[in-house]
Amino acid sequence: MSAKFSFTLRSEDRRRPLPERLIVGRRETETPRQVLLKFLAYVWFYRERLQLNTELHDDNIPFVPDLAQLDYAMQPVLWVECGECDPKKLAKLAVKLPEADIWIVRGSLDEATQLHAAMRKADLRRNRYQLLAWDAAMIEELLDLLALRNQVLWVSGETEPPNVQFDFNGLWFDAPVTMLAW
Fold first, then answer.
1. 3-state helix/strand/coil string of the chain
2. Which of 19, 40, 60, 82 could form a disulfide with 105, with the two C-beta atoms 3.0–4.6 Å apart?
3. What is the per-residue pLDDT across 21-67, written as a single tens digit (0 to 9) for each?
4. What is the pTM (predicted TM-score) of this model?
């Protein structure tokens, strides 16, 4: 069953002027967890021209990113995968997107370290990928709060130290974020 999740957004982070509303459509094969990871990634990586599930219309790139920022020539400069991601797909992305920053967003540090180990075992190119892992307890709590209509007040998302602060449907979150490079 597909569904649309609506997020009414307010930002107190001057570096992140979020849109007033974001709608994340859930495809038939996606879980609410994947929708939540896409939403959080959208807010974390927010910048102009950031798009959800955008078709690239490029025969050389047969994949659809969860999030992408395209340059004015319609080439990805940022590619974000949320949730499960096969190392084989990541290897192809590194070749097909030589100029793009490639990020993989996972719902816990355990998931990120498992993917990191799989990337090492598959001998993927170094210095091409970044992994972002949310706090597992925060993700589980957010899943319990996730509704078709959501209210979010974003306060901050910092890389030094990696941390997020926001209100989601009336509950305050202040949680660490882990970033791993490959």
1. CCEEEEEEEEECCCCCCCCCEEEEEECCCCCHHHHHHHHHHHHHCCCCCEEECCCCCCCCCCCCCCEEEECCCCCEEEEEEECCCCHHHHHHHHHHCCCCEEEEEECCHHHHHHHHHHHHHCCCCCCCEEEEECCHHHHHHHHHHCCCEEEEEEEEEEECCEEEEEEECCEEEEEECEEEEC
2. 82
3. 999 998 888 999 999 999 999 999 999 899 999 988 888 888 999 99
4. 0.95
